[in-house]
Specification:
This is Glutathione-binding protein GsiB. Belongs to the bacterial solute-binding protein 5 family. Part of the ABC transporter complex GsiABCD involved in glutathione import. Binds glutathione. Its main location: periplasm. The chain is an alpha+beta fold. It is built from 16 helices and 26 strands. The chain has an 8-stranded mixed β-sheet with strand order 1-15-22-14-2-13-12-11. The chain has a 6-stranded mixed β-sheet with strand order 17-21-16-20-18-19. A 4-stranded antiparallel β-sheet has the order 5-6-10-9, with helices on one face. Helix 12 links the parallel strand 18 and strand 19. Helix 14 runs antiparallel to helix 15. The two termini are about 45 Å apart.
């Protein structure tokens, strides 16, 4: 594997990156009049659709799939502007505590149940019920350091069937953005299936889920009773194809109409296919490696800083994304509001060795690195392993099925075996709090959330809390700037980079796009025939 990577790196470094035009096209199809042989959309993705329960999803592939079936009160359009969906309008009180939503009338769930205010309340009650142990619970419930909990919502009132009034306990700036992630499930289906709803999806969306087989595919059919504009395709199948070359071949032969992601090293292979477009867009995806600070070897900040100095981030971006991205300059991407650039950990192996010696680890040590077993993830992990070997850290790369990684990570602290985790994260609400709280706040360690560095800093927590409590942008900037500085200097992660999204599509497909958070949207898909 190491030899193969070294060869790949040499090729990548010598290759000329393809430049995107002003509309994001890296490659523009020369045959724009090609037609689809059927009206069935096939999307090939690298990872897995891990759940069809929108209240309990950990990744953007699952977000993408569930958004075909489920809808929210408000959503982001393709320009990341907030628009109404199941809510026709909303008002926010002057003190930012009370949100009043006027719901869309005449909408039915796919089982015939009416969507109304009672349905919203039923979904809220389900999510905040501690016994259900749903990931989305932490949107509304604060886990305090002493083990107690505080609800962000003081009350929910439904004065009539199509009005929902939500009163917050305290002002909470990201609230309206967070509602873009709060999907409505049929209360009747919840009553019948409970938390097995993942196997019986039932929403108000444009598609009906006909089959979900994790690790293989997820299938959808057009919802003929959809309240809005009906989809232009008959069916959609999301196929899980972890091997990059296999996805590329599917696109070239027409077996797939859309593939995501498209690794930059596949661009040359696709160029000769005359009916394929390759596009790129900026993302808020953060690429990093978590470092378990509870491990003796990783408990000294000098070691963690040394590891960051030992990674050539420019080479990483070139190898993994052919230059379509940039090295990390904070704990969040620059696209996130409140981002502040930090002093970079430049590639300096000698400095890294000095820090290792100062920490008493001149001879290094051994660690394991977990990550998904896809072509791209294995390449990235192998690169990290090779870089850290320069300072005496022997890293054993352990690729696994995504579901297996999740099972091993989301355990109680005393059962944790994690050393390092090669991972990426994007905040689908595009807020600073959404980017940091779940990953670095002290009470967000597994199994509650994904703080797999077990980072615990009272000042950092206070900054996040203060930033969340104020709607004043100047004050927010101060608190969030301080939080970024604290985390950056503490090095709970190997800070790698922020890549651009690259995806490929047949020229006869329109209406499918990828958002900056990495979630793809197929609600308005159309295949020219």
């Amino acid at each position: 594997m190491a030899a193969a990577l070294a060869g790949a790196m040499a090729v990548s470094m010598s290759a000329t990156a393809f430049a995107a035009d002003e509309n994001g096209y890296i490659v523009k199809a020369t045959n724009e009049d090609s037609k689809s042989s059927d009206n069935d959309l096939v999307i090939a993705i690298e990872g897995s659709v891990s759940s069809m329960d929108p209240a309990n999803i950990p990744d953007t592939n699952a977000i993408s799939a569930t958004r075909g079936v489920y809808e929210t009160l408000v959503s982001f359009d393709d320009n990341q502007e907030l628009v109404g969906k199941l809510a026709e309008s909303w008002e926010i009180s002057d003190d930012s505590l009370t949100y009043t939503f006027k719901l869309r009338q005449g909408v039915k769930f796919q089982d015939g149940t009416d969507f109304n205010a009672a349905a919203f309340k039923a979904n809220y009650d389900r999510v905040v019920d501690k016994d259900n142990n749903l990931r989305q619970r932490r949107t509304f419930i604060i886990a305090n350091a002493d083990g107690s909990e505080t609800s962000r919502v003081e009350s929910i009132e439904t004065p009539d069937d199509y009005t929902v009034v939500i009163k917050l306990a305290k002002a909470w700036a990201p609230f309206i953005n967070r509602l873009t992630q709060f999907c409505m499930i049929s209360p009747a289906a919840l009553e019948e299936y409970g938390n097995d709803i993942m196997n019986h999806p039932c929403g108000t969306g444009p598609y009906v889920c006909t089959e979900w087989e994790e690790g293989d595919h997820t299938s959808f059919a057009r919802n003929e009773e959809y309240w809005g504009e009906k989809p232009g395709v008959d069916t959609v199948t999301i196929r899980e194809v972890p091997e990059a070359g296999a996805r590329t071949a599917m696109l070239q032969t027409g077996e797939a109409d859309f593939i995501y992601p498209t690794p930059s090293d596949q661009i040359e292979a696709i160029k000769g296919t005359d009916d394929v477009n390759i596009l790129t867009a900026d993302s808020n995806i953060m690429r990093y490696v978590t470092l378990n600070m509870d491990l003796e070897q990783l408990s000294d900040v000098k070691v963690r800083q040394a590891m960051n100095y030992a990674i050539d981030k420019d080479a990483y971006i070139q190898l993994m994304y052919s230059g379509y991205g940039k090295p990390a300059t904070s704990v969040v991407p620059s696209i996130i509001g409140g981002y502040e650039e930090q002093e970079a950990y430049t590639y300096d192996v000698e400095k890294a060795k000095e820090l290792m010696k100062e920490a008493g680890y001149e001879d290094g040590f051994k660690l394991t690195l977990w990550g998904d077993n896809t072509t791209q993830e294995i390449k990235g992990m192998t690169f990290i392993s090779q870089q850290l070997a320069q300072i005496g850290i022997e890293v054993e790369v352990q690729p696994m099925e995504p579901a297996t990684v999740g099972d091993k990570i989301y355990v109680d602290k005393d059962e944790a075996e994690i050393n390092m985790w090669y991972v990426n994260w994007s905040a689908s609400d595009f807020t600073m709090d959404g980017s940091l709280r779940s990953l670095l706040y002290s009470s967000m360690c597994p199994p509650t959330s994904a703080n797999t560095a077990y980072f615990n800093d009272a000042d950092f927590d206070k900054d996040l809390d203060e930033g969340l409590a104020t709607a004043n942008e100047e004050e927010q900037a101060k608190y969030y700037g301080d939080a970024q500085k604290i985390a950056w200097e503490a090095c709970p992660w190997l800070f790698l980079g922020n890549d651009q999204i690259i995806y490929s599509t047949k020229s006869y497909l329109s209406g499918v796009y990828v958002s900056p958070d990495g979630a793809f949207n197929f609600a308005n898909a159309t295949l020219a025939q």
